[in-house]
Design a protein that fits this description.
Layout lengths: L10 H22 L6 H17 L23 E3 L9 E2 L2 H14 L7 E7 L2 E8 L2 E7 L5 E3 L2 H4 L20 E9 L2 H13 L8 H9 L4 H5 L4 E11 L7 H10 L9 E3 L2 H13 L8 E8 L2 H7 L9 E5 L4 E13 L4 E13 L2 E7 L3 H7 L6 E7 L3 E7 L25 E2 L7 E3 L5 H12 L11 H9 L20 H5 L6 H13 L5 H7 L7 H11 L2 H6 L2 H5 L6 H12 L1 H13 L19 E5 L7 H10 L12 E6 L5 H10 L3 E2 L1 H10 L6
Parallel strand pairs: 2-11, 19-20, 20-21
Antiparallel strand pairs: 1-6, 3-9, 3-10, 4-5, 4-7, 7-8, 10-11, 12-13, 12-15, 13-14, 13-18, 15-16, 17-18
Helix pairs in contact: 1-2, 1-6, 12-13, 16-17
Length: 690
């Protein structure tokens, strides 16, 4: 098969097209959290672009997105566990919610006077910089707050970030210093990139935040260096051997003295009314800056009062983000269409005349279900109001009735599936969702394969929606289909892929290698990829720990499955039913034939100091979400059940604990630990000495 540049019909035009497509999908995924294509489909576009640029180095451009990673914690960068979690903030969407937060805060402080530090909420990418003995040793994205991505090489290309810290004017350089802040792209840099893209005939970048995120996630730091990124520091993380502070503004002065950029618009204010005035002023002048902001951040200045206020399960009580109101625009609703998922669920979505709203271009929006379409009474041809709620999720609010065309009729949900089988669509009584009931529906088949290959399952880079649909329609010389189940992908060859449009030898070899490499994915990933109803990643993790191998899970009795931590009767019954289906068993055997690992259980690297011990967590533990606290126990070999019993080793009692658990622990004389005791338990596996 010819794999020379001539094998593609119009390589240069395809390069321009791919760059435009990737720029579009970057903002859909990272900014909207509502992508038009799956992660895997995004990856295949990226693989194709990379292959073409390798074949045609003369067509490469400095701002090519060829090495971008599409958000989240990916396998491209090494994971970094944050020693101090990067928590999120609760939001206030208007003055009333800001006042309510202020009232709760004052109640929490029992009327103590307090002051605030107000900062601009930079619309960029949260970053943690770690210095050891004054040297920058690691930079990590926020990720999920607990685990981020190591982007140290790229961060070192940002000129305003110091590589080494110097003791100046008596300032002590801590042994360990973590600096939190925001990486952003100045508007001047963004506009220059867009000017270059326009001159090259490429699609424009949508917004500076997306451009900054994409620039920072380049595998080639030389590309990042050309993007003119910048950084504002705003918080300390872990500090070892540093000075003692009593207020937040002192920490900002400390950062400034060490050479970190601190935003000049930081203000110390005494009342919530002054805070509201600060926020309102910047809402009005948000576009006066050379960088984007999407709100203001308000923090209690006194660090002792922060300790007193503590955290909820996911955010500090002593800070809040005042979000500017979402922007609204009107646009044309071109059509209402339906998509079919892997379970047969049919979802209507709006096809819109693309409109720039809330910082990004919106072209599609989900309409959720039949009832939502009827409730909003939106119709093809309507002019509709589109809103970016919280500057993240696009929403069709409703029609502009005064502009509705004459003769318009309400949209009617189809009664047959758009697949070639034209199968019946059914809405069970009492349910909101409509379902395609034909198990042979090719849309469901394709979505099952796409889900199997997705990032949260087998994570097969390059096997996306477009490729799956090509594979499911292609046949071999003997007339057999290339792919009908997810197991079939493991038997694909380079020659099979070369018959598909857009594949050359390089891209085909890479996809085959990615598929073969996925055979060694951990058992929880494989269980998730099977798509068993109700069985999500957390339950799959519990099953893997309890049974160790897929065969043991398949042969387990329903009652034994139900006893697994995190499962219960409903999930256990669903698993039992799934493995009782002959076609599913045949599918598993096909995976076995392919050599997929049925017993690859990831073992925690933490010392197993809690092996065999059950530790119950109740209330909010500072520095952890509930899930993170339970995960810390499990990572050390322990169990974290949801109730207290005679077998409980200890109960960790945080803020606002459950009364029933504390009462039960008292009755059974189970040791109860505070946050310091929990830290000791995680380190040693033993109860702290009294």
């Amino acid at each position: 098969m010819d794999d020379t540049p001539d094998a593609l019909p119009d390589d240069e035009a395809r390069l321009v097209e791919l760059r435009a497509l990737i720029a579009h999908h970057n903002h859909r995924y990272n900014d909207l959290d509502d992508p038009e294509i799956s992660d895997a489909d995004y990856d295949i576009l990226m693989r194709e672009l990379r292959g073409l640029e390798e074949l045609h180095p003369e067509l490469q451009t400095p701002d090519s997105p060829a090495e971008k990673v599409g958000g989240g914690v990916s396998a491209t960068f090494a994971p970094v566990i944050h020693r101090v979690p990067m928590t999120s903030l609760d939001n206030a969407m208007d003055g009333g919610e800001l006042d309510a937060w202020g009232e709760r805060l004052l109640r929490g402080l029992a009327g103590q006077p307090t002051s605030f530090v107000c900062e601009l909420k930079i619309d960029g990418l949260a970053m943690s910089l770690r210095y050891e003995h004054g040297v920058l040793v690691q930079a990590a994205t926020r990720g999920d707050g607990r685990v981020g991505e190591d982007v140290t090489a790229n961060i070192k290309t940002i000129g305003v970030i110091p590589h080494t810290l110097q003791a100046v004017g008596g300032v002590t350089v801590p042994e360990v210093l973590e600096v939190r802040g925001e990486v952003y792209m100045p508007l001047a840099s963004f506009n220059a990139l867009n000017a270059a893209a326009m001159e090259a005939g490429e699609k424009l970048l949508v917004n500076p935040r997306n451009a900054a995120a994409g620039s920072l996630r380049q595998k080639d730091s030389r590309i990042t260096a050309k993007r003119s990124l910048s950084f504002w520091s705003y918080q300390l993380g872990e500090v070892v051997g540093g000075p003692e502070f009593t207020s937040h503004h002192e920490t900002l002065e400390f950062l400034r003295a060490l050479g970190f950029p601190v935003n000049p618009e930081v203000r110390q204010l005494s009342t919530v009314a002054e805070v509201a005035e600060f926020c309102a002023g910047w809402q009005e002048h948000r576009h006066d800056l050379d960088y984007d902001i999407d709100g203001c951040v308000v923090k209690v200045d006194d660090l002792a009062q922060r300790e007193q206020l503590g955290f909820t399960s996911r955010a500090p009580r002593w800070a809040i983000a005042f979000k500017f109101p979402p922007e609204e625009r009107t646009t044309l609703l071109r059509d209402i269409m339906i998509s079919v998922g892997r379970t047969g669920r049919v979802t209507p979505f709006a096809v819109l005349e693309p409109v720039f709203v809330g910082g990004s271009t919106v072209g599609m929006s989900t309409l959720h279900n039949q009832d939502q379409v009827a409730l909003k009474d939106v119709r093809p041809g309507d002019t509709v109001i589109v809103r970016k709620a919280g500057d993240v999720i696009p929403e069709v609010v409703g029609p502009v009735l005064s502009l509705r065309p004459e003769g318009s009729e309400p949209w009617v949900f189809p009664t047959t599936c758009p697949c070639p089988l034209q199968s019946e669509l059914v809405r069970p009584e009492g349910e909101a969702n409509i379902t395609c009931i034909e198990v042979g529906c090719p849309f469901q088949r394709d979505q099952r394969i796409i889900y199997f290959a997705s990032r949260g399952a087998m994570d097969i880079e390059g096997l996306g929606e477009r490729t799956v649909m090509q594979l499911s329609q292609a046949t071999r010389a003997d007339g057999t289909s290339l792919v009908t189940t997810p197991a079939d992908i493991y038997f694909l060859t380079v020659e099979d892929l070369l018959q598909l449009e857009g594949f050359a030898t390089v891209s085909a070899e890479r996809l085959v290698a990615a598929i073969q490499g996925s055979k060694a994915r951990p058992l929880p990933r494989l269980l998730t990829a099977l798509g068993i109803k109700h069985l999500g990643p957390s339950a799959a993790e519990g099953l893997s720990r309890a049974f160790g191998k897929l065969d043991a899970i398949m042969d387990a009795k329903e009652a034994d499955l139900a006893m697994t931590e995190g499962l219960g009767g409903i999930i256990a019954a669903s698993i039992t039913r799934w493995f009782a289906v002959a076609d599913n068993r045949a599918f598993i055997e096909r995976l076995r034939e392919a050599g997929v690992d049925f017993g690859n259980v990831v073992i925690s690297r933490q010392p197993q100091v809690l092996a065999g011990k059950a530790v119950v967590v109740t209330g909010s533990v500072e520095g952890y979400t509930r899930e993170e606290a339970e995960a810390a126990i499990k990572d050390r070999g322990g169990k974290s059940p949801g109730s207290v019993s005679k077998k409980t080793f200890a109960v960790v009692v945080g803020a606002e604990p459950g009364a029933s658990k504390v009462t039960k622990a008292t009755e059974l004389a189970i040791p109860m630990l505070d946050e310091a005791g929990f830290a000791h338990l995680l380190d040693t596996g033993e109860l702290p000495s009294t």
